[in-house]
Design goal:
The chain has 534 residues and is an alpha/beta fold. The chain is built from 13 helices and 15 strands. It has a 6-stranded mixed sheet, sandwiched between helices. It has a 5-stranded mixed sheet with strand order 10-11-9-14-15, sandwiched between helices.
């Protein structure tokens, strides 16, 4: 349902832009030259260059002697800027006068024979032809008909192959229904793939959030257990303090008993003194008193002996009780500390295991995200951005050595015919098959990436030119001798390869690949299915 709503919104947007474009056509075109300039500006507005981010301004070269056209351009460009970029204008009388890079080259009707040369020299430049031009090599054309009506024609396939992005409104106005349908279908497929990637990432994030919640719950349980242990420890400490209070009370009782024993001894002494006094008073009964005294003396000796033994036993008991109390207290402390250290060790080990598991899961997620960001999903080769970055690093490393290296640009021949005849599914199978052949014939130190729809790039590290030619010819031969089968359809493919050696002064991978791309273009022009070195 969301997809249908999106299609309806896109259709309304295209219809609105198209109506405004037709309205501009009728309102601005005061003269034939003004109309040509107006539609040239509209073409620039609705096209995006492959290296747009690196362009600070647009250079327009008008090839041909047409003063009215130049005056119309100057009048229009005085206050015109496109996406914040100013436009610079030059006029060239011949092909040889084109001596620098141009974003756009406007070829007048008298100079149409130079278009082929211009395309070879400026493969990434938008070439606008004035007058009738054959569709096969056309990028964008403005033609004046007999009734002075202006018609605009574009070749979507040629523009896309050169890396240009075309707005839907321009396709509706100047392209064919098939071009517009294909572009909408590609945009829908791209949106669908982005939606699937977004849903997959949301599912991954949801899983991570669930795992994080489980970890938080486990940590909370650990905290509750720790708090419970702390409460148990406080309870044991309270019991220990209570035992100390009881011990103090027992010591006080022992002191009271000792005082009572001392009082008893004092009473015995007093009784002894009374007995002596009675012995003096009863001298007459000496015999009986002596016997009584002897008996008393014996009793006193036994009592003294018993008192001495009692005192010794009391001292021994006090010492043993003190020793037992001290040992018991230290035993409680040691036991509590041991349990606390064991629990703390268990908690640390458990938290360490949880942290390691979480770090491992995070590492796996980061590796998956890195693979999505650096790898082409269809062929599992490096995508264009990561290939350019990796090759640039290799160039920087090789500048410090004397090793030779080479770069290859590979393109599938007549790939558009495969898509038109057998469908895009067969085209995808063809791209995957070529990618597999390339992977089977590279070394571990080489870098390979998919840099365009059916275009691949290789950077051969520590590879002399002769070895690079052998590798390129081997890849080309294996592709040519392989058959691709998909849904009862079998096709044979060929590829063209442009090869260039990395020179001593090369510091930028883009410059190196530009040389290889020129060699690739020469291979295409020379009959395809071959390797050209430059």
């Amino acid at each position: 349902m969301k997809f249908i709503v999106l299609q309806i919104k896109m259709f309304i947007c295209l219809l609105t832009i198209s109506m405004s474009l037709y309205a501009d056509h009728s309102a601005i075109a005061l003269t034939i030259e003004d109309a040509k300039v107006h539609y040239t500006i509209e073409l620039i507005k609705h096209l995006t260059w492959p290296n747009e981010n690196n362009i600070t301004h647009h250079n327009i070269a008008v090839l041909g002697d047409d003063d009215d056209l130049m005056n119309a351009f100057k009048a229009k460009l005085v206050s015109t800027s496109i996406r914040g970029k100013t436009i610079m204008l030059e006029q060239a009388d011949s092909f040889d006068d084109l001596i620098k890079y141009y974003s756009i080259i406007y070829v007048t009707e008298k100079k149409l024979s130079a278009v082929t040369k211009i395309q070879k020299k400026y493969p990434k430049t938008l070439i606008i032809t004035d007058g009738h031009f054959h569709q096969e090599h056309l990028l964008a054309g403005i033609e004046t008909r007999r009734n002075n009506d202006i018609s605009i024609t574009i070749n979507r396939d040629n523009l896309v192959n050169k890396g240009f992005k075309i707005s839907n409104s321009l396709l509706e106005f100047a392209g064919t229904k098939e071009d517009l349908s294909r572009q909408l279908e590609e945009q829908e497929n791209h949106l669908q793939s982005l939606l699937e990637i977004s849903q997959a990432k949301e599912a991954t994030v949801a899983k991570l959030n669930l795992k994080l919640e489980l970890l938080n719950q486990s940590l909370k349980e650990y905290n509750d257990s720790l708090q419970k242990s702390q409460l148990d420890l406080l309870a044991k400490d309270s019991a220990l303090q209570k035992s100390q209070v009881q011990l103090t009370a027992l010591e006080e009782k022992i002191i009271i008993a000792h005082d009572e024993m001392t009082n008893n001894q004092n009473e015995i002494i007093e009784q002894q003194q009374i007995i002596d006094q009675k012995q003096r008073e009863q001298e007459q009964q000496k015999s009986r008193l002596e016997q009584l005294r002897a008996a008393i003396k014996n009793s006193q000796d036994k009592l003294n002996k018993q008192n001495t033994e009692l005192i010794q036993k009391t001292a021994i008991i006090d010492t043993k009780e003190e020793t037992i109390t001290d040992q018991r207290w230290w035993l409680y402390v040691a036991t509590a500390v041991t349990f606390f250290l064991l629990f703390l060790k268990y908690l640390v080990i458990r938290l360490s295991l949880v942290r390691k598991k979480a770090n491992h899961q995070l590492k796996e997620v980061n590796e998956q995200l890195f693979e999505l960001a650096t790898t082409d999903s269809m062929t599992q080769l490096l995508n264009r951005r990561h290939f350019m970055e990796s090759a640039q690093k290799k160039i920087k490393q090789l500048r410090e050595t004397n090793y030779q290296s080479a770069a290859l640009m590979i393109d599938i021949d007549s790939f558009k015919d495969v898509n038109d005849t057998y469908g895009h599914a067969m085209g995808d199978e063809a791209i995957i098959a070529v990618a597999n052949v390339i992977l089977e014939n590279i070394r571990d130190i080489d870098i390979v990436g998919r840099v365009g729809g059916e275009e691949f790039a290789m950077f051969l590290t520590k590879c002399p030119l002769e070895k690079a030619v052998q590798i390129a010819e081997r890849v080309r031969g294996k592709v040519a001798n392989s058959a691709i089968t998909f849904k009862d359809n079998t096709i044979n493919l060929t590829i063209s390869i442009g090869l260039t050696q990395v020179k001593d002064g090369d510091t930028d991978i883009a410059q190196i690949l530009q040389r290889a791309d020129k060699a690739l273009y020469q291979a295409k022009e020379s009959g395809k299915n071959q390797v050209i070195q430059k």
